[in-house]
């Protein structure tokens, strides 16, 4: 492993929101040390799809590898992650990264692919009114992906910092109070909070589409009448295509320069996680910036029963 990113999923795991024990971390760039019967891979700089699928079940055969019935997820579900010197992934998950792409940029391929997934699922037209609710790191990537469609784009934020970045990109940033009364053809919910969902739900126009990009800890109460009467389309959206992520980053269509905060060595991993957990990174706009861990040497970070040790 060369470099890994700490994201809000890692923090939620450390807090015990996910039933995970093992080594966390899923955003990375590394060098193939052992090609294990796959000639030509050794020495390649690679990133990797976080979904470890069987390739033989009905869901896999229908093309939905990330929907495999026995799916494991790198550093998230039943599979050790990348906050370590070495990690293991099936060869089919690996994507080679050209030397011209820096390690820092490469670590953003996974979240960028996740952001771009929305465009695989929803046709966004320049005439569409689109609102993104939330402005953290993934949200900034999603916002850039949507901006490239030429749509009428607004983002609901709670703090001034993301608003400044968004306005620098020519995107209108509004508070929840300011956006009240607006309606959009497409709303993207990226807060994972009941309040964020309620706001997104209320902003979705009749016959509009609500894209759910965050998971919700706990239960949500929804009045589904709005969905039926107004014929709302609800879309769940998860991981995306890594080649598309790589292309968007190398072409400059999606920029990440302002999103990198600091670097830690792997033996400072616990510090990196507590740094990322500071109120600056959390509260209203969690994970606006990214922390990177140099994983070339040092200790492993492990999570057990909700605590990093
Ligand atoms: Zn992540
Ligand atoms: Zn399968």
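Q: What amino acid sequence fits the structure above?
A:
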């Amino acid at each position: 492993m060369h470099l890994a990113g700490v994201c809000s999923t890692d923090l939620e795991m450390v807090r015990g929101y996910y039933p995970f024990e093992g080594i966390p971390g899923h955003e990375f760039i590394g060098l193939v040390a052992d090609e294990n019967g796959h000639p030509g891979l050794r020495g390649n700089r690679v990133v990797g799809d976080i979904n470890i699928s069987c390739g033989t079940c009905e869901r896999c055969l229908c093309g939905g590898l990330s929907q495999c019935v026995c799916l494991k997820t790198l550093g998230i579900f039943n599979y050790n992650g990348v906050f370590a010197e070495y990690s293991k992934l099936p060869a089919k998950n690996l994507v080679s990264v050209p030397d011209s792409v820096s390690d820092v940029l490469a670590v953003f391929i996974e979240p960028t692919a996740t952001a771009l997934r929305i465009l695989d699922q929803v046709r966004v037209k320049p005439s569409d009114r689109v609102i993104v609710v939330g402005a953290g790191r993934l949200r900034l990537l999603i916002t850039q992906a949507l901006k490239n469609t030429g749509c009428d784009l607004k983002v609901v934020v709670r703090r001034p910092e993301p608003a400044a970045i968004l306005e620098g990109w020519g995107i209108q940033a509004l508070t929840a109070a300011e956006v009240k009364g607006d309606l959009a053809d497409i709303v993207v919910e990226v807060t994972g909070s009941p309040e964020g969902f309620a706001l997104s739900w209320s902003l979705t126009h009749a016959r509009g589409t609500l894209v759910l990009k965050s998971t919700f800890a706990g239960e949500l109460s929804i009045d589904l009448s709005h969905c039926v009467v107004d014929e709302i389309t609800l879309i769940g959206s998860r991981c995306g295509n890594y080649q598309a992520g790589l292309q968007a980053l190398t072409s400059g269509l999606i920029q990440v320069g302002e999103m990198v905060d600091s670097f830690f060595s792997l033996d400072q991993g616990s510090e990196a996680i507590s740094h990322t957990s500071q109120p600056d990174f959390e509260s209203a706009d969690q994970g606006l910036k990214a922390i990177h861990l140099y994983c070339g040497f040092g200790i492993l970070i492990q999570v057990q029963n909700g605590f990093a040790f």
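Q: And what stands out in the fold?
A: The CA atoms of residues 115 and 141 lie 6 Å apart.
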